[in-house]
Amino acid sequence: MNYKIDNLQYCNWSREVFEINRDAGLDAVHVTIVYHEDYDELLVETKKWEKLFKENSDLIFLGKTFKDIEKANSESKTAIFFGFQNCSPIEDDINLVEKVHQLGCRFMQLTYNNQSLLATGCYEKIDSGVTNFGKEAIREMNRVGIVIDMSHSAEKSTFEAIELSEKPIAITHSNPSFWHDVKRNKSNELLKTLGESKGMLGLSLYPHHLKNNSNCSLESFCEMAARTAEIMNVRNIGIGSDLCLKQPDSVVEWMRNGTWSKSKNYGEGSKDKSGFPKQPKWFEDARGFKNLEKGLNKVGFSEDEVNGILGNNWFNFYKNI
Amino acid sequence: MNYKIDNLQYCNWSREVFEINRDAGLDAVHVTIVYHEDYDELLVETKKWEKLFKENSDLIFLGKTFKDIEKANSESKTAIFFGFQNCSPIEDDINLVEKVHQLGCRFMQLTYNNQSLLATGCYEKIDSGVTNFGKEAIREMNRVGIVIDMSHSAEKSTFEAIELSEKPIAITHSNPSFWHDVKRNKSNELLKTLGESKGMLGLSLYPHHLKNNSNCSLESFCEMAARTAEIMNVRNIGIGSDLCLKQPDSVVEWMRNGTWSKSKNYGEGSKDKSGFPKQPKWFEDARGFKNLEKGLNKVGFSEDEVNGILGNNWFNFYKNI
User: Fold this and answer.
1) A98 to chain B: which residues are within 8 Å by CB?
2) What predicted TM-score, i.e. pTM, was given to this entire model?
3) What total of structural domains would you count in chain B?
4) pLDDT tens digit string along A187-231?
C-alpha cells in the first residue's frame, strides 16, 4: 500500500482546502493548529477544529495513530494530525504535555524562531541548547507520544534534542542549507545525524526555503532531494510542504512577531516583501504532489523511493513511534 | 534624612509581619508578589494585596515612586514596592510590561533560576545571554520604569542586561562569590561592572547565600560588606534580606520547582535540607537591621556609609530612575 502524506500545512482551513487535499490524494496531513497561543487559546482552536471535523466528516477526521492513516486511505478521506509550531501551549507546566496529547497533539516544536523555555530558535544570536525545562519536556513528550519537531530551532539545540530524545525526532518542514543557505534550512552534518537517529526530514515547498524562491524549478528541487538522499537515508526523507493556502498576510506577521516585539520583525521576508511569498507554479497547492512524483522519478529515484518520499516514509515513522 | 529600606522580602504577609517591619523602622520594602505566576494569576495576587493594604492602612501602603518613601517616613509607615522574581507575568507579550507597571510592578527579574523567554538563569548549564524578546523587554521596562533585577540570572546575561539597559539595573538579593561561592552569588568582575554602571547590589541575609549558612556571624557578614565596598562604590550597596518569614516549606518547593519538573529540584538546598533554612540569630527578621548598624560601624564604615547601606543608597537609586 502507498500513502501520500504532507507533514506540514498551515492553511486557512475550509472545505475548499480539504477538497484540494483530497484531490491531491493525501491520506494524512500534519496541520499546525497553534503558534504562540497559550493553553487556553489552544482550547479555543481545538473547538474550531471540532466544528470543521463535524462539517466536513466526508473529507477529514482527527488522526491519532498510524492506523488512522490506513483508515483514511480505505475511506478516501484525509486524517488530520495536530501539531504546534511553538511550545507556548504547555506554558511552564510539565503536566500540560500530557493534556495537549489528550487534545490530539502529535508534533510540537521546542521553539519557533526565538528562544523558548525549552530550547533556542534559529533567529537567536546564541544557541544555548536544550534548557533544564526542555530536558524534562523531551522526557515527557517521549512518554506520552508527542514527536519533537525542530524545524525552527537552532543547530546546537537540534543536535541536543536528537541526543536527549529516546525516540526519533522530526524536522517537519525545512530544506538542506547546501542548496539554499538560510537560517531555517539545515546543515549536512545535522541532516546526517538526524538520519542516523532515524529522524525524519520533511522537505519544504515554502518559497523562502527554496533556491530562487518562487522561481525555483521542479528540477532543482528534485535534484536537491537526490543530493539529500546521499547525506541521509532516503527512507528518512518526506514532504512537509509548509503550505499556507488562503492565509492573509496578517497571519505571517503574527507567525513572525507573535506579541513579543513593538517593532516589526520580517523573519524570512523583508520590508519590501513582508507578506506570504508566491508558491512555485508546480506546487501551488498539494495537487503539486503529482509534479513531485514525476520530478523525483526523473532524477533517478526508484518508484519505491518516490513513494517513500511522498508518504510511505512518514507512514513508517508514525508507525514506529 | 535617613531612610531604612529592605529591598527584598518574600514573607507570608500578615499584620504581624508588617508590625515587625515597622518595629525595624523600615520606610520601604520591595516585596516579591509573584514567582512563576502568569498575568491572570498576578491579578489574583494584586487583589490579595488590595485587601492587605485596606486592613493594614495604619502600617503600609503601595509605593510607586521615591516620594512614597519620604511619605512613609513622615507617616511612620512602610511603603510596599511590588516586584516579580520571574518574568512569567508578562508571558510572551511586550504590551504586558506597561500593564504590570500600572499594577504597581517596579522590579522584575529577567529570569528565576532557569532559562526564561528573556535571559538565562544561574542554574542553567549554558548562558546564551539576553534573547531577542529580552532586548525588547529591557527597552520597554526602561521606558515605563521597571527596574531590571538580575539576582537569579546567569553571569553573561547579567553583563548584557547592564550593557543593554539605558538605566542602572539592580541585583536586589545576592552576595559576592569571593565570600561564599554558590551559583546565586556574584563575581568581583560583575560587581565592579554593576557599580560602575550605577547599579545596586542588595546584600542578602538568606542563609544559603551566607558563609557558614545559618551559622554565619555578624562580623563575617559585615567584613564581607567592607570588602565588597573595595570592589564597588559603597553608594551602590544596600540590603535585600530575602526574608521569607512564616513561609511553610511548600513555598520554597514552589519557588524552586514551579511547575516545570516532574522530579524534585532542591535548588540551593538538598534532599536532606529541602526546607527554608534557619536565619542567623542576629537577623531573624528585619529588626536585625539594628545589629547590622552596629556591625557595619565596627568594621570601619562611617555613619554616613552605614546609613547609605541600610537605606539611603536604595532611596537615591529609586530617586534616580
Assistant:
1) none
2) 0.91
3) 1
4) 999 999 999 999 999 999 999 999 999 999 999 999 999 999 999
Residue the block writes with cell 508527542 = A146
Which cell numbers in the block locate residue A308? 517513500
ipTM of the shown complex: 0.85
* A37 close to B (CB below 8 A): no
Q: Are strands A105-109 and A78-84 parallel, antiparallel or unpaired?
A: parallel
DSSP assignment of B22-46, as one string?
Answer: HHTT-SEEEEEEESS--HHHHHHHH
Where b means 16+ CB within 10 Å and e means fewer, B70-103 reads bebbeeebbbbbbbbbbbbbbbbbbebbebbbeb
Q: What is the pLDDT of residues A270-307, one digit of tens each?
A: 888 888 999 999 999 999 999 999 999 999 999 999 99
Tell me how far apart the alpha carbons of residues B92 and B118 are, in angstroms, rounded to a whole number.
9
Domain hosting A174: range is: 5-320
Would an 8 Å CB–CB cutoff place B266 in contact with chain A? no
Characterise B104 by phi-psi region: left (phi > 0), alpha (psi -120 to 50), beta (else). left
**Residue B70 sits at the chain A interface (C-beta within 8 Å):** no
Spatial separation of the C-alpha atoms in residues A97 and A110, rounded to whole Å: 12
Distance CA B136, CA B143 (A): 11
CATH of the domain at A150: 3.20.20.140
Asked if B91 is an interface residue toward chain A (Cβ–Cβ < 8 A), one would say yes
Of A91, A114, A131, which has the smallest distance from its Cβ to B132's Cβ? A114
